[in-house]
Amino acid sequence: MKEDTCRQETDKDFNIKVFDVNASICELLFWVNANDEWQSKNNKVEYAEYRKKGEPGANSILGLKHAYNASKHEMSYVNLFTFEKKNSFMGSSELLIGDLTSDPVWVNCPDNTNNNPKFKKQIDKQIKNYREFIKGRKVLKTFEEAITFLNAMNQKVMFSENE
User: Fold this and answer.
1) SS3 110
2) How far apart are the C-alpha atoms of 11 and 53, rounded to whole Å?
């Protein structure tokens, strides 16, 4: 009986940690995307020029756009990452669970199933960018690059007293 209680607590702790990771990634996706959209609207010329240069942070933002939209529309982003290391579940070499002490990494995303002509081309482009720029990379590294890039861009913006 005591072993079952310990196992339930371990499962509960694991689920809470996975939820915390999911919530943190989702929140970071929101803020990176919000800043990217603000820059695109308010710093059009310079921001567009720097994004075209292919800097790592700009490339990460392009890949993160798909993960953000997946989180916003269907919550499928939780299937876009896994943990770098896996542990055996109950001694099985076939049943593996993520090791929460390791870094989450972006995994491949499914093909676009949205056949709406209004969105298909845009979604296909986002999936291409995701696969090209962040798939297989550490989640934290992609966010670090994106935030560093956005901070540098924010330093270039001049605000007037009326804003």
Assistant:
1) coil
2) 46
- pLDDT per residue as tens, the chain (163 positions): 444 444 444 555 655 566 677 778 889 999 999 999 999 888 877 888 888 777 889 999 999 998 888 877 766 556 677 665 555 555 555 544 555 566 788 887 777 777 778 888 888 898 899 999 999 898 889 999 999 999 988 887 766 555 5
Sign, CA torsion 15/135/146/84:
positive
Q: At what angle do helices 139-155 and 56-73 cross, to 10 degrees?
A: 110
CA–centroid distance for 121 within its chain? 21
Tokens 């270039």 locate to 156
Q: Which residues, other chains included, contact 86 with Cβ-Cβ below 8 Å and sequence gap of 6+?
A: 96, 97, 98, 99
Residue 17: closest CA among 84, 86, 99: 99
Among candidates 149, 145, 144, 134, which has minimal Cα distance to 70? 134
Coil/strand/helix, residue 96: strand
